[in-house]
Specification:
heterodimer; A: 302 residues; alpha/beta; 2 domains; 4-stranded antiparallel beta sheet; B: alpha+beta; Rossmann fold; Elongation Factor Tu (Ef-tu), domain 3; 6-stranded mixed beta sheet; 37% strand; binds guanosine-5'-diphosphate; binds magnesium ion
Chain lengths: 302, 426
């Protein structure tokens, strides 16, 4: 039998499982950042596989902006129950109430940026020394540059100019007290890989990913949700009922909706194969400047 | 679903190398663009960024040069990973910097590559960095090499220029004793896409494949199938009602095949046993091959922990030693000092190590070995004698990348060097 016969999905899966086991072996108190998006769902699923028949040896952490699609929370709670995992919720509302951050104002206000403070507080409060995230390098040009084991200083900051060399599959998790790591086990997956894997493994997703009728409105070239009603609208922005689905799920205020007829995973994969814009093309937070992501990461963002 | 066959694709990891401005980032931009892997919003952003920098044409390099400092200086500083797929294959590209002070990032990109595309500017021919990167590609045992003679538009697509550079490159390989088994040369204009995706009409004298055709077809050799290697990563013990006595070993197969019923030997202890189960998630399998991450169970209750290696009881056994001949690429400005204590990470093991002696370092410029060296600094390539505090279970790097590679970590926790085991020292 010839070697080197793994399919690309099997090889990506094997790499991610290896990384997750390195996390368990090298850190004292790691966690998984769970956003409810498909990437963090796949990440959690991979962790389940990596340690089976034992439970995932670390908790899931959800940084809750308070602006959720209810479907996300239902899904999250069911998943945690099914896996027997621990859930830690960090609340942006609480950070606002405690005066640690100030809410943005105006029509494009978003809590996305405020999340960084809540995230760092939550990591520090629970003494997590590693947070695994579902970010992928194909999502964004600053992410394309980030290491899989990404070292953060005491302030949670990323230093893109002086990253540790990362060779072969040898990961160096050494750090000083107070520092921590972000680890990205699915760095090398593309959007298409994620969808194909969900299809191959028959992973259940929140209903938001499939097309459905929703009240929404049009702004700056994209559809946004009017239900749940978190985004203040200008007078000329009318609410219409449309057949939409999410390509990526974040907080309601920065999740663009795609007009779609895709009811099944097969249809979603076909739709993505023919689409001509990136999934983050619909994310308002990235459009703020050319290096918006790098700047947020330097401050400690995911 | 139209893309069903697409689930069965194979993955090829490749890296670009070559001197600054030879066109590495442009080539990758071109591959992404011509294989329709660039989305409209990405292209718009690059067009906008090119315009605001006063470039007349769209600068495809901006697709990979994503950091602020890179965009400001117009150079690549760190490795960028890019992804694209054709109906035949899926690709992961590491775009690496050409500047000498960022050679370490080129090493990073090369360490996982199955193939290297080394670019040469047709006007300038072979430069110091071309030689340096070729040495690194050879040292890191990248199995396949493509030399892309780029910017053929600037030499009137002249076949003589291409032939001369190809001949000079072959001479350089021989002079330096580089271990390339399989090198091909492709004349190219990355900027306009000649011989990148489709064959160019401007160079009818060239009859070989386009770069993409080659990337889609090239076969990457597997390792020794009969000698299985499984570095133990993590012990899985559920202690649950359903699995009260389960004890499994998580790891990624570094070489060969594991089958249920196989006889195995655990190293360094030398204990022997038999494989009773191979798991991944809820599924049990009869066998698993190199590259797969699995959890295996064995018949006997023997002491196995992270850092041990499970090997097949047949075929070639791994070696054990605490004294090594090692090729080193130093990655940081803080020097490698003989006698200084470093932490060595090798596969899933971690031990203290000291470099006893630097045998020689390579002077890439003069293409010769320099002896009587006390220290190494950033980007130096050398052969050294390493001693470790405990024995490592290993194979020579030439036989297996995972079992033969290691990194140096210093007191600041930084990864400062990369090592490739040549053999045990005696
Ligand atoms: N005329 C010509 N210019 C090219 C070609 N390929 C790249 N260039 C230009 O060479 C310069 C350096 O390219 P870049 O991709 O940044 O090089 P890198 O440093 O190797 O990544 C840019 O101005 C490119 O537009 C080519 O085939 N022909
Ligand atoms: Mg470049």
């Amino acid at each position: 039998m010839s070697l080197n016969q793994l399919t690309h999905l099997n090889e990506l899966e094997a790499e991610s499982v290896f990384i997750l086991r390195e996390v368990a072996a090298q850190f004292e108190k790691p966690c998984i950042l769970f956003s409810g998006g498909k990437d963090s769902i796949v990440l959690t699923y991979l962790a389940y596989k990596a340690f089976y028949p034992a439970k995932i040896p670390f908790p899931l952490v959800h940084i809750d902006t308070g602006h959720n699609f209810p479907e996300t929370l239902v899904y999250r709670d069911e998943l945690v129950k099914r896996l027997g995992a621990d859930l830690v919720v960090g609340s942006v509302q609480k950070s606002i109430d405690e005066g640690k951050v100030v809410e943005e104002k105006g029509f494009n206000a978003s809590r996305n940026k405020l999340q960084t403070v809540t995230l760092l507080d939550t990591l520090a409060g629970h003494k997590f020394d590693c947070a695994c995230g579902g970010a992928r390098r194909d999502e964004e040009k600053a992410r394309a540059k980030e290491r899989i084991f990404s070292h953060r200083d005491e302030f949670g900051q990323w230093n893109p100019k002086n990253q540790r060399p990362e060779l072969w599959n040898i990961f160096n998790a050494k750090k000083d007290p107070g520092e921590h790591f972000r680890v990205f086990p699915i760095s090398n997956w593309t959007e298409m890989d994620v969808w194909q894997y969900i299809y191959q493994e028959k992973i259940e997703l929140p209903s938001l990913y499939y097309t459905h009728m929703r009240k929404c409105f049009y702004r700056d070239g994209q559809w946004l949700a009017a239900d749940p009603d978190f985004i203040p609208r200008r007078p000329e922005e009318v609410v219409e009922e449309r057949e939409v689905r999410c390509r990526t799920i974040g907080d309601v205020t920065c999740t663009g909706l795609t007009l779609s007829h895709a009811h099944s995973l097969e249809e979603i994969i076909d739709e993505i194969a023919s689409t001509r814009v990136t999934e983050r093309g619909g994310r308002a937070d990235d459009k703020r400047s050319e290096t918006a992501m790098e700047d947020r990461k330097k401050q400690g963002y995911f | 679903m139209q893309n069903n066959g697409y689930l069965e694709m194979k993955l090829l990891r490749f890296t670009t190398a070559g001197s600054v401005d030879d066109g590495k980032s442009t080539l990758i931009g071109r591959l992404l663009y011509d294989s329709k892997s660039i989305f409209e919003d990405q292209l718009e952003a690059v067009e906008e960024a090119s315009r605001s920098r006063g470039n007349e044409e769209v600068n495809l390099a901006l697709l990979t040069d994503g950091l602020r400092a890179e965009r400001e200086q117009g150079i690549t500083i760190d490795v960028a990973y890019r992804y694209f797929a054709t109906p035949k294959r899926k690709f992961i590209i590491a775009d690496t910097p050409g500047h000498i002070q960022y050679t370490r990032n080129m090493v990073t990109g090369a360490s996982t590559a199955d193939l290297a595309v080394i670019l040469v500017d047709a006007r300038h021919g072979i430069m110091e960095q071309t030689v340096r990167h070729s040495c690194i590609a050879s040292l890191l045992r990248i199995p396949k090499v493509v030399v892309a003679v780029n910017k053929m538009d600037l030499v009137d697509f002249d076949s003589k220029v291409f032939d001369d550079i190809s001949a000079a490159y072959t001479a350089m390989i021989n002079k330096n004793g580089l271990e390339f088994k399989d090198v091909i040369f492709i004349p190219m204009c990355a900027k306009d896409g000649d011989n990148v995706v489709s064959r160019s009409e401007l160079m009818p004298w060239y009859s070989g494949p386009s770069l993409l055709e080659h990337l889609e077809q090239v076969e990457i050799p597997g390792g020794d199938a009969d000698s299985m290697r499984f570095p133990v990563q993590y012990v899985i013990r559920p202690i649950s009602r359903q699995f009260p006595d389960f004890r499994g070993y998580g790891g990624r197969i570094a070489q060969g095949i594991i089958r249920v019923g196989d006889s195995i030997e655990v190293l360094p202890s030398g204990s022997k046993s038999t494989v009773t189960g191979i798991w991944l998630g809820e599924k049990q399998k009869e066998q698993a091959v190199a590259g797969e991450s699995v959890c295996i169970t064995i018949k006997d209750d023997i002491d196995i922990s992270r850092g041990d290696v499970i090997a097949s009881d047949s075929g070639v056994k791994p070696s054990m030693s605490n004294d090594f001949v090692l090729d080193v690429c130093w990655l940081r400005t803080s020097p490698l000092v003989c006698g200084k204590r470093y932490t060595i990470r090798h596969a899933t093991q971690e031990v203290a190590g000291i470099v006893k002696e630097i045998e020689y370092k390579l002077d890439i410029d003069k293409q010769e070995k320099v002896y009587d060296i006390e220290q190494l600094t950033a980007n130096d390539i050398a052969r050294v004698h390493l001693k470790t505090a405990a024995p490592l279970v290993f194979d020579a790097y030439r036989d297996n990348r995972t079992m033969g590679s290691l990194i140096f970590i210093d007191g600041t926790n930084d990864t400062v060097g990369a090592g490739m085991i040549v053999e045990s020292y005696d």
